[in-house]
Specification:
about 70 residues; alpha+beta; two-stranded antiparallel ribbon; two-stranded antiparallel sheet; globular
Length: about 70
């Protein structure tokens, strides 16, 4: 899954990733850590990628994100 933060959240994302350089940042879905990569640099683009070998889980996450996007 590839995504991009809303324009108003990009600076906050960039600052958060800068503060986590050399540390891990996690993506949590339904109370479970899906992935927790180590941040290598400030991410100013606001873009992110969510990966998992579990295709069913990825589809569930995608549908959830898409549903939330429609409600906003």
């Amino acid at each position: 899954i590839e995504g991009k933060m809303k324009a108003g959240k990009v600076k906050k994302w960039a600052d958060a990733t800068e503060n986590r350089i050399g540390k891990r940042i996690g993506f949590v879905f339904n109370d479970s850590v899906i992935m927790a990569p180590t941040v290598n640099c400030r991410i100013e683009s606001g873009r992110f990628t969510i990966n998992s070998p579990d295709k069913v889980l990825i589809l569930e996450i995608y549908k959830s994100l898409n549903d939330n996007k429609k409600r906003i």
